[in-house]
Amino acid sequence: KFTLSSNTSNSIGLSATGLPSSWLSSASANATITSMSTSSSENRSLNYGMGFHYAYAGKYILSGTINRAGSSKFGDNFKFGFFPAISTKWILSDENFFEPIRPIISMLSPRFSIGLTGNEPKEAFIHLSRYVQNGMFIDIPAVKPKNMRLANLRWEKTTQTNYGVDIEFLEGKY
């Protein structure tokens, strides 16, 4: 599996006071413009992975995936994350010792899985210091930091586990 994506976003904002109506939003209306802003954002991501499935004797099952994800929302040192997962299943009802109770419990299969998932930040460029306008100082636009530089920002990683039992009674009636 291979995925490559690119996202671009642009926006323009204008604030004004003294408009005769809140429904009127024309920049040429008789009002005082209090602020203007623009923003642009671009990010790219790359994901690739592979999986496997193995069944021994039709009743011992092992599956797994390995994914590697990369995002431009991180600094140079931590652009890529590694996210593996594995699952097992034992079809217990296919064992010889299960034969006496098979008319009642026709299928019994415990399973377990564990995997690592990753999330990237919602905003781009937070691994860099960014600044925004902060009013005026002696008729000169002032700026303030928008965020602290997060040069060592990494993927958020979460381990997820799942376990359960598949069960079927009376040849699939229940």
Structure description:
The strands form 2 sheets. A 6-stranded antiparallel sheet has the order 1-2-3-4-5-8, with no helix packed on it. Strands 6-7 form a two-stranded antiparallel ribbon. Helices cover 0% and strands 63% of the residues. The radius of gyration is 28 Å and the shape is elongated. The protein contains no helices and 8 strands.
Order of helices and strands: EEEEEEEE
- Structural class, judged by helices and strands? mainly beta
Give the beta-strand count. Answer: 8
Rounded radius of gyration (Å): 28 Å
Q: What is the approximate shape?
A: elongated
Question: Approximately how much beta-strand content do the residues carry?
Answer: over 45%
Cα separation of the termini: 37 Å
Uncertain runs with pLDDT below 50, 5 residues or more?
none
Give the helix tally: 0
Mean of pLDDT:
87
Keywords for this structure?
two-stranded antiparallel ribbon; six-stranded antiparallel β-sheet; 174 residues; mainly beta; elongated
Please render the helix and strand layout as text.
Elements: E1 2-17, E2 32-56, E3 60-71, E4 80-90, E5 105-119, E6 130-137, E7 140-147, E8 156-169
Antiparallel strand pairs: 1-2, 2-3, 3-4, 4-5, 5-8, 6-7
Summarize the structure.
0% of the residues lie in helices and 63% in strands. With 174 residues, the chain is mostly beta strands. A hairpin with a 3-residue loop joins strand 2 (32-56) and strand 3 (60-71).
